[in-house]
Amino acid sequence: MWCPFCAHPETSVLESRAAEDGQSLRRRRECQKCQKRFTTWERVEGPTVFVIKRDGGREAFDREKIVRGVIKSFDKRPVSVDQIRQLADEVEREVRRKEATEISSKAIGKMVLKRLKNIDKVAWIRFASVYFELTDLTEFEKLFEKIS
């Protein structure tokens, strides 16, 4: 494992433990050159699932895209990185449990929205405004009625 700080190729594993979800392994590492510490994650990679985009395009499922989208929704909101990762883990598990080789981006968005609503309603509104492609105030008002 290369050190992300100095690119030295040798690091030591200080601690390994299963993550909360039991589906991944968290390792605490230390660079043997600069002595800086960092965390790595290992997870099982299943068969490739393709996401069918709104425009009909296809791309491989990427859990990190969910994390990035949710992080934007939680901007300046009281939420931990662990909560965001847990949400992404849950969505990924649900996608992989379907045992399908393709899934629509719309279905993934619904999975995210379902979980966001229970965590933070402001983040839900932010994510939903992009998901539903809202363009004017009346559409936002209808969205607010849904969450109330």
UniProtKB/TrEMBL annotation:
Domain ATP-cone: 49-139
ZnF (unnamed) ranges: 3-34
Function: Negatively regulates transcription of bacterial ribonucleotide reductase nrd genes and operons by binding to NrdR-boxes.
Single biological process term from Gene Ontology: negative regulation of DNA-templated transcription
Superkingdom of the organism of origin: Bacteria
Name of the protein: Transcriptional repressor NrdR
Annotated family: Belongs to the NrdR family.
InterPro entries (alphabetical): ATP-cone_dom (IPR005144), NrdR-like_N (IPR055173), RNR_NrdR-like (IPR003796)
GO MF, one example: zinc ion binding
Cofactor(s) needed by this chain: Zn(2+)
Keyword entries, A-Z: ATP-binding, DNA-binding, Metal-binding, Nucleotide-binding, Repressor, Transcription, Transcription regulation, Zinc, Zinc-finger
PANTHER family: TRANSCRIPTIONAL REPRESSOR NRDR (PTHR30455:SF2)
Cofactor binding note of this UniProt entry: Binds 1 zinc ion.
